[in-house]
Specification:
The chain has about 170 residues and is of the alpha+beta class. It contains four helices and nine strands; from the N terminus they run βαβααββββββαβ. The model has no long low-confidence stretch (mean pLDDT about 85).
């Protein structure tokens, strides 16, 4: 059984007494909550009332996958950002560097078989090593291409040795 932890924004500011932390920006609250390992944050006065106003708080820097995190954390991160804005990463196929959106994954807690971020192809599956297991990439969207299920992607693409996500 896994336990996910959330926190209230009162750790940064007080809605009833804005003079207590009122100057702390929402971006700082979200970043520090994430760095502390929380997977959720309770709604508070700093949040926009409409998701259209909150989504711009997600940007290129805070939607990039960190492959050195735990597999469960990466899995929750990808699920939380799907379908939009979508978690992304750089992928290195040999000497080619591409930007990729990762749309769907499955995490398995096991002994990894390589360094974090290294990619393996096995029986039409794309597998990535993480610190505490492996992640199966089920759907990927390479920059400039359409989104593909991994089985379709691997039908037309051979993953070079020494490929990795960064």
């Amino acid at each position: 059984m896994s336990i996910r932890l959330g926190i209230a924004p009162i750790a940064w500011s007080n809605d009833d007494m804005p003079e207590l932390g009122g100057q702390t920006p929402l971006e700082q609250c979200l970043k520090e909550a994430s760095l502390a390992g929380f997977t959720g944050i309770e709604y508070g006065g700093k949040f926009a009332m409409e998701s259209k106003k909150l989504i711009p708080k997600l940007n290129k820097e805070n939607t990039k996958i960190d492959w050195k995190q735990s597999g469960l954390r990466i899995s929750n991160f990808v699920k939380g950002l799907n379908p939009k804005p979508c978690a992304w990463t750089y992928v290195f196929f040999g000497n080619v560097k591409l930007k990729a959106k990762i749309k769907e994954i499955y995490y398995e807690n096991c002994e990894p078989s390589g360094e974090c971020g290294t990619i393996m192809e096995n029986k039409k599956k794309l597998i990535v090593n993480v610190v505490d297991g492996i992640i199966y990439i089920n759907e990927i969207h390479l920059e400039g291409k359409k989104s593909l299920k991994i089985s379709d992607f691997l039908n037309g693409f051979k993953v070079p040795e020494n490929s990795y996500f960064s």
